[in-house]
Amino acid sequence: MSALGRRSFHQIPECETVFTSVVDLIYTGVANRGEDTAMSRKSESNGERISDAEHAVMEALWDRSPLSAVEVCDQVCEQRGWSMPTVKTLLSRLVTKGAVGTEPEGRKFLYSPLIERADYVGGESRRLVDRLFGGRAASLFAQLAESEALTDSDLSEIEALLKEMRK
Question: Is the model's pLDDT at 82 over the cut of 50?
Answer without folding.
Answer: yes
